[in-house]
Specification:
The chain is α/β, with parallel strands linked by helices. It is 46% helix and 18% strand.
Length: 155
Amino acid sequence: MPPILYLLIGVQGAGKSTWAAANAARLEAEVVASDAIRNELEAAGHPAAGHSEQVFAVLAERVAAGLTSGRNVIADATHVRRAWRSATLAAARAQAARLLAVWFDVPLAVSLARNAQRPGGPWGDRIVDEAVIRRLWRELEPPGLDEFDEILKVA
């Protein structure tokens, strides 16, 4: 059986990381999270803000490594634009993985409320500027069957 890539799609506060943590064991999947990569960069003395290309290059490499080892992988990042998910999907296709989108189609108000409740601290716990979430929510490009083998919609 080929490994499965679960690529999470949704704005900040949509519930992606919570879903990943709750489902990783059941899906026998490792979680590769952009926030964790950002935290690693900062811990090594490299600024993560404004370096999304580097973060997502590392994310694609780690996804490919997991799939190459035959493990299922949950890619936890916003992935709201097709262009932002293309490198990770290409890496997964190169490993003949099954591609499953997990689309968090939640109301904007829900994401904003969850974001406002974040405690602050490292990436993943930081409150994201409301304007950023609103912009990404408007610009979200839903996943399509031309990209994925299956789409799971979480509402």
